[in-house]
Amino acid sequence: MPDAPPRLNHVALSLPPAALEPEGRAEIVEFYGDVFGWREYPQLTRDGQLLVLGLATYDQFVYLLSDDDPLRAPRTDHFGLSVATRAEFDALLTKVKQKQAGDPRIDLDDHTVDDQEVVKIHSFYVHHLLPLTVEVQWWEFPSAP
User: Fold this and answer.
1) Of the candidates 40, 63, 80, 94, which lies 20 to 30 Å from 9 by C-alpha distance?
2) Phi then psi dihedrals of residue 63, to 5 deg
3) Which residues are 6's β-sheet partners?
4) pLDDT tens across 51-85, in order?
5) Read out DSSP for 12-24?
6) pLDDT of 86
7) DSSP state letter for 48
């Protein structure tokens, strides 16, 4: 038995080959880089075939590969990111809204709060260029009475 449970290190998604040609890759890198700080691992990039985007640490990444029969998912299928503070949450939401003002392809479900008494889960969903939506959450723990 390991000392700690395994942790998620990557998500792999298939896209149409054209989405991974230089123009498509540039759009993906620009949006997800500007909003979430994801960065391309250029040493892994292969035109029309592969794009790997690093997240918070070197071993956390989104692996985008081409396929003639790419992933198609309902808009509700997603993976989640969390932030530590309300300020981080608000800053990301503002970035998405600024990007959305210039790109009607960006689909945003704005800020909602799921109040479960012991925790209030703030979230928004953004869908753009990838087959899965990204949910961003901030968990607010109300003060004890």
Assistant:
1) 94
2) -105, 110
3) none
4) 999 999 999 999 999 999 999 999 999 999 999 99
5) EEEE-GGGGSHHH
6) 97
7) T
Q: In sequence order, what E strands does the chain have?
A: 10-15, 39-40, 50-54, 61-66, 78-83, 107-115, 120-127, 133-140
CB 45 within 8 A of CB 51: yes
For the stretch 75-131, pLDDT in tens is: 999 999 999 999 999 999 999 999 999 999 999 999 999 999 999 999 999 999 999
Q: Does 42 score more than 90 pLDDT?
A: yes
- Grouping H, G, I as helix, E, B as strand and the rest as coil, residue 46 is strand
Give the number of residues written for the chain: 145
Kind and range of the H or E run holding 100: helix 86-102
Q: 122 and 86 in contact (C-beta within 8 Å)?
A: yes
CA dist., res. 131 & res. 11, Å (int): 12
- Could you tell me the two tokens for 15? 């896209």
* Cα 104 to Cα 74: distance, rounded to the nearest angstrom: 19
What is the distance between the alpha carbons of residues 132 and 9, in angstroms, rounded to a whole number? 17
Token pair for 29: 């890198």
